[in-house]
Amino acid sequence: MPSYKAPLRDTRFLMNEVFDFESHYKTLPNGEEATPDMVEAILSEMAKLCENTVAPLYQSGDEEGCRLENGQVFTPKGYPEAYNEFVAGGWQGLSHPVEYGGQGLPMSLGLIKHEMLGTANWSFAMYPGLSLGAMNTIQMHGTDEQKETYLTKLTEGTWAGTMCLTEPQCGTDLGQVKTKAEPQDGGAYKITGTKIFISSGDHDLTENIVHIVLARLPDAPAGTRGISLFIVPKYLPGQIGEDNGVSCGALEKKMGIKASATCVMNFDQATGFLIGPPNQGLECMFTFMNSARVGTAIQGVAHAERAYQASLPYAKERRSMRALSGKKDPEQVADALIHHGDVRRMLLKQKAYAEGGRAMAYFTAMYADHMIAGMLENDQKKYDKWDSELGFLTPILKGFLTEKGLEAANEAMQVFGGHGYIKEHGIEQIARDARIATLYEGTTGIQALDLLGRKVLLTSRGKCVRSFSRNLVDFGRQNLKDARLRPYAWKLLKIAAEWNYLTTRIMLAATKDRDIVSTASYDYLMYSGYAMMAYFWALQAATARDKLENGGNEPAEFYKAKLATAEFYFDRLLPAAKGHADAALKPTRSTMQMNAEHFSFDYE
Fold it and tell me: Catalytic amino acids?
């Protein structure tokens, strides 16, 4: 089983040399304590926890899985102890308010922490990760009393949180939610219904679990306008261990992330409390969902990194045939796999997606910092601005990076050949675990519709694309005269123009044929992902070039490797964007013309 090593050099390169997080933190009301020494201590200590405690449970947790006994879910051996160590270090409240027991540091540090934790062991990271969404929702929409009651315990990590959306009859279409909320004397509600696919719905890591539940009030309007949001704890505060009508009915039997408890949750007249205004639960829940989607985007980075860390040493050690350009290891019976061009293609693809995706995620984390700053400063205009910017980036990161994380895991299996398909080397687990990332928090198709239909066409009429693509134009103009960076500059200028042209063409076509929003959305999202990653690889290349000439924190070989990977991305991966652009503009007829009854003539 491959071990995990935190990619601290790449993290420091992005934080210190590409994005200048030190200056960024000085602009934030909660950034004063995020000094270089503090940031370095956080990175180093989290790396130790992940490498020494969390990562060793990755394979054993998968083999053992969770179990349900007498209504209680038990996590695999070692998980409670690892979670207690995580809590003792104060990691859960790293980026949450000091008044509720947190450390009050910028959200970006929490996301970077989550990347390390998730790469080490995504199943384990799911437990504290789901709590973060609950914490953000209560912080944004809860009353002072709710914050004091629930946020303090969640920040400590002694309580955990979940989000309960999906029901047997509905997934993405939440307008079909049937769970009921009946008002009671004293302001409480009785919640009745069944939720499925609830990650961390029940476990033995904390003394209580706080469920954030979508439900309907008795006279609520139909559809999404009639959904409210409720806090429904497993045990009522002050009544730990006493039944509150919340129970786990079953554990889902899953393809991957088996050490993460995915539960069928039953609410039988459970006592709950309204959070946010009545019938505006979906709007409040989006706080939770956006937090979860950014976290899921990081899963794509995590699996690409995990796959790369596994396949790289194997490619250096495993020997097969001779390189086409001549013997590379003449003293050996055959050359190492890494000397074969196609194996290098697969390794570089994994490296490009892991490091390019990490740059995208860290940049997005800075947007999240600004959004939180608006909230802390009670500046609604500032909050709305950055929330809008973040809303555009989120579906691209979630959709594109999880697809590429899965692709990287599959490439790792190809590097291993048949050895990747058996359990011994752990590659098949990475592939199984990566598969879910493209599904939960909205499938890739749902992210694509959210991006193109809601964010680009409906909400901004293409303004969000014009806004972000200015980054590409600025880079192009600034570096077009630099012979070493001109290839990147020229391509970014072309991509910026093509991205906006593609947006305008679809917008115009949609006025006559609304189906194009659906038929084009996946290709549009993938194009957007390739375009965005190209910008961040160009940034890394420019930084690496500067550090090679003027000196940096890393050895010259590190920066040369960055330049080589950037060149590979632009030469070998970015061309796929053109195919997505072409496909997105094709008429809907080829997709929509066949009668539904004619998809098969052999079975009903």
Answer: 441
